Amino acid sequence: MTPQEYCQNKAAQSGSSFYYSFLILPQDKRDAITALYAFCREVDDIVDSRSEDHIKHVKLAWWRDEIGRLFNGTPQHPISRAIAQHLEHFNLAEEYFLEILDGMAMDMDVARYASFRELSLYCYRVASVVGILSAEIFGYQDRQTLKYAHDLGMAFQLTNIIRDVYEDIQRDRLYLPQDELQQFGVTVEEIRQQRHTPAFAQLMQHQIDRANSYYERAMHELPEIDRYAQRAGLIMAEIYRALLREIVSADKQVLTHRIALSPLQKLWIAWKTRRLETKRFRCWTRQQANGG
């Protein structure tokens, strides 16, 4: 199995919404983003495994050394060997890969976040950094696009947090800020007991409103000149926003079952968004040709 085949299998097995957006990319960018995503899945699987924490720390430390080897030209793992093939073509900074590992380590060392300010650092490391690396692969001309990528990554992670509340509490993790639980009168024990109270519904609406505000901010920040190049991210955004709407339609019942879109729904959103973005790009290029 080649390094790229290893990454392809890793990405396909995850069933993630991200995979559907990769399909529209030219082969070089598709291979690069697939390798990046495989890296994220690989280290996330370490943290979510049933291994003892000291073993997880050893594995993450190995990956920290492996990132050093990757940027020194001597990678060992199939994923880092796949990433190495793209370092010459895309600006993928070593520090960002180390930030992702720092975020993964937080999942073992931090089980609660006192405030959204504290949670923001975690979201930056595990999601915004990935968004920035993805934007580098997709391509851009205006550096404002990196602000868009940062905020879109935040929006994605906040959406994941909303969807996975009960799954996370079963691992004794809670990403809802503690001061906001107090503000809305929700206890950790009520979440453990799957008690969908009116107070919990209000708390979740507050999280949903915050996530939507990051989506809106990201869309406002994306320069028109880079919109078509970043269309894979826009497809992801539409899929994730549809998931948020699904959660609202289900009365935020995230404690009783995992709310998700079907593969067919994701494919439909991906196709529709790609079509709309292509049409928008053609209109924009005509306007530019006619003097803007």
Main beta sheet: none
Strand fraction: under 5%
Structural class: mainly alpha
Q: Please tally the helical runs, counting DSSP H or I stretches of 4 or more residues.
A: 15
Helix content range of the residues, please? over 70%
Radius of gyration from the alpha-carbon trace, in angstroms? 19 Å
Alpha-carbon distance between the termini? 49 Å
Which ranges are low-confidence, i.e. pLDDT below 50, for 5 or more consecutive residues? none
| Strand count | 0
Order of helices and strands: HHHHHHHHHHHHHHH
- Overall morphology: globular
Name a few traits of the molecule:
mainly alpha, 292 residues, 74% helix
Write the layout of secondary structure elements.
Blueprint: H1 3-14, H2 17-22, H3 27-48, H4 53-72, H5 78-84, H6 94-109, H7 116-138, H8 144-163, H9 165-169, H10 178-184, H11 188-192, H12 198-221, H13 224-227, H14 231-249, H15 263-289
Concise synopsis of the structure shown:
This protein is an all-alpha fold. Helices cover 74% and strands 0% of the residues.
Could you explain how this protein is built, in words?
By secondary structure, this protein is mainly alpha-helical. The protein has helices at 3-14, 17-22, 27-48, 53-72, 78-84, 94-109, 116-138, 144-163, 165-169, 178-184, 188-192, 198-221, 224-227, 231-249, 263-289. Helix 6 packs antiparallel against helix 7 (116-138) and helix 8 runs antiparallel to helix 12 (198-221). The radius of gyration is 19 Å and the shape is globular.
